[in-house]
Amino acid sequence: MPAITADTLTLPRVAVPDPAVVGRRPVRSVTTAPSGFEGEGFPVRRAFAGVPQSALDPFIHMDQMGEIEYAPGEPKGTPWHPHRGFETVTYILDGIFEHQDSNGGGGTITDGDTQWMTAGSGLLHIEKPPEHLVVSGGLFHGVQLWVNLPRAHKFHLPRYQDIRGRQAALLASADGGALLRVIAGELDGHAGPGVTFTPITMVHATVSPGARLEVPWNPGFNALAYVLAGQGFAGEERRPVRKGQLVVFGQGGAITVAADTAQPQAEPNLEVLLLGGQPIREPVVHYGPFVMNTRAEIVQAMEDYQAGRLGVVPAERVPHADGPVPGEE
Q1: How many domains does the chain have?
Q2: Full-prediction pTM beyond 0.85?
């Protein structure tokens, strides 16, 4: 499942925090993501469903996309759609996805890559599998996270960050039983490549059967753990968790997850996405693809979209049967 792997014995180790000094975070809740469909019909798990926004801040929304083996002709994406007021983070574990926007940005992300798109003031966007994957079919699995922007940055110019899997900072737990990929923010002084307006930490951890992972966590951040695969426990309370469940931790300076000694046959390890960020603590009005501070700003975003002020869909180049497109000779 994880595209980026390494020998944990050769990696820098994350020190076990002293619980007497930092305090371990208790488990506040464990929720199960309901299943649904997105875009043109690809399956998703709604990771944050049923969790209050106050516990998620600065995060807005997250889908676990797919983990599906498509037959030829089945791969699906999204149609063109607008965004304003937040950032989308697309992390691909298996498969290939192509992105394009109305500003001319975009690219291709594949196994272990992340695309960080700051929608900011607004744009039109499309996500789809490449044509060769549609023809051949194949495995697709990823995560898309929405990170809120503070009021001061909601109208920042759109930008992209293409983060290749090999750029993530690779770390090991203190005993070598877990591999950690730091995508954004920092963990125990080790920084990931993602640059964010709101301070956050995003880590993909692979925990071996029977291993326990305890890491320091910024006391000023919230703390979430989403189980991508496998089963195990969260917190000192050893709350049982499994694939498709989200753990919300309380206050403290360290978080703990552990893998069950017996894992599902198709999922040999506990795969967990660790998320935390500095709460923005501003009003949030979320309507479809817009995340703003007031209802009036949502209405304005809709009017701007309808008026074409968020951009226009680029015309697709269609070659002439009898020669090149005029102007391209």
Answers
A1: 1
A2: yes
